[in-house]
Amino acid sequence: MSTSASTPLITSLLGIYAVPKLTETNWVQFKTKTVMSLRAQGLAHHLDGTVKTPHYLPQDHDKNGQPVTLIADKLRSATETEIEENRVLLNAFAQKEALAIQQLYATILSSVFIQVQSKDTVAQIWDAICEIYEAKSDLVQADLRSCLQSMKCGEKDNIHTHLTTMMTL
């Protein structure tokens, strides 16, 4: 079996973090597992927007009017090796963005997808999802507090089950 640069990425997709489908009640669990899953795949910088986005090499024309690819300082033409390295960087970046977006899209509700699909980057999509769910947090917290205050463990109920339910909430 041959090894390639993509093998670790494919293997990491089988990681231990199974991200649940996002619902109205599991935002904290979803957020934690999504961040950990993307971090395990080496995509955390895409999620927080700190990844350095590669750029296409600038184009110009030589004195004969033929298009040439320039190196970033625009003082000389890029070599074939530099052009290929730039393509590889652009491809790797696009693949990682697509993997992270794919994971987010696969785990969010259709109604949330409709709200975030016009965003261009993983970081923008993630920020929009966070805004949707964290804006609801005051109302959700009040509801949760009320629910927790009204919970009671009956005499014949299992205290461990009761505490687990409270912790889950």
Write the layout of secondary structure elements.
Blueprint: H1 7-12, H2 27-40, H3 44-48, E1 59-61, E2 67-69, H4 80-107, H5 110-116, H6 122-134, H7 137-150, H8 159-168
Antiparallel strand pairs: 1-2
Explain the overall architecture:
The structure is a single chain. This protein is mainly α. It has two domains: 7-133, no CATH class; 136-169, no CATH class. Helix content is 57%, strand content 4%. The protein has eight helices and two strands. It has helices spanning 7-12, 27-40, 44-48, 80-107, 110-116, 122-134, 137-150, 159-168, and strands spanning 59-61, 67-69. A two-stranded antiparallel ribbon has the order 1-2. The longest helix is centred in the middle third of the chain and has 28 residues, at 80-107. The radius of gyration is 24 Å and the shape is elongated. The model is unreliable at 1-15 (pLDDT under 50).
Which short descriptors sum up this protein?
169 residues, mainly alpha, 2 domains, two-stranded antiparallel sheet, 57% helix, elongated
Largest sheet: 2 strands, antiparallel
Counting structural domains, the number is: 2
Strand order of the largest sheet: 1-2
Q: What low-confidence regions span 5 or more consecutive residues with pLDDT below 50?
A: 1-15
Helix-strand pattern: HHHEEHHHHH
Distance between the termini: 47 Å
Determine the number of helices (DSSP H or I, runs of at least 4 residues). 8
Query: Mind telling me the C-alpha Rg?
Result: 24 Å
User: What portion of residues is helical?
Assistant: 55-70%
SS elements, strand count? 2
Q: What is the beta-strand fraction?
A: under 5%
Shape: elongated
Mean pLDDT score: 82
Structural class: mainly alpha
